[in-house]
Design brief:
Layout (H helix, E strand, L loop, with lengths): L1 E9 L3 H8 L2 H7 L5 E8 L6 E8 L12 E12 L3 E8 L10 E10 L2 E11 L5 H19 L3
Antiparallel strand pairs: 1-7, 2-3, 3-4, 4-5, 5-6, 6-7
């Protein structure tokens, strides 16, 4: 298991970004890599609250962690600090031992002038997931988060 960290400056206030971190509708729109769609099955945005999300490849040649073309994960919110930090744990629903294990994602929001620096730290990522893939997916998600929260 390993860790990755990706940051992105977003031209939006911390409060707007924090809201998007805790909204099922927003999660379905931003926390999905390019080439996939998302379904939020369960989402209880409070400390201890559970969530369950599926990401499905748009094309049938995608290989999923949970099924032929789907990645489904479940987890819960560990710590919520309004407008500052979200800590969550999650695990893929899979029979593949190489993809199992509890991951922790800590998303931190820091003022950066008129912008917000958003940092996502992934800890406990299974070795079977190439670090470059994890980082690329996180960058795509942060780009989506910026599109969702930045004023036009």
């Amino acid at each position: 298991m390993y860790s990755t960290q990706v940051s992105r400056r977003i031209s939006a206030p911390r409060a707007s970004i924090y809201s998007a971190l805790l909204s099922a509708d927003a999660i379905a729109r931003w926390r999905v890599p390019v080439g996939m769609t998302s379904v939020v099955h369960e989402f209880d945005a409070r400390e201890g609250g559970a969530f369950r999300v599926s990401l499905t490849y748009d094309f049938s040649d995608g290989v999923g962690k949970s099924g032929f073309s789907t990645d489904t994960y479940r987890g819960h919110f560990v710590r919520l600090v309004p407008d500052e930090q979200v800590v969550e744990t999650l695990e893929f629903e899979t029979g593949d031992e190489s993809m199992r294990g509890i991951m922790t994602i800590t998303t931190t929001l820091v003022d950066a002038g008129a912008d917000t620096e958003v940092t996502m730290l992934h800890e406990g990522v299974p070795d079977a997931i190439p670090p470059a893939d994890n980082e690329a997916g996180t960058r795509m998600a942060l780009d989506n988060l910026a599109t969702l929260t930045e004023s036009p």
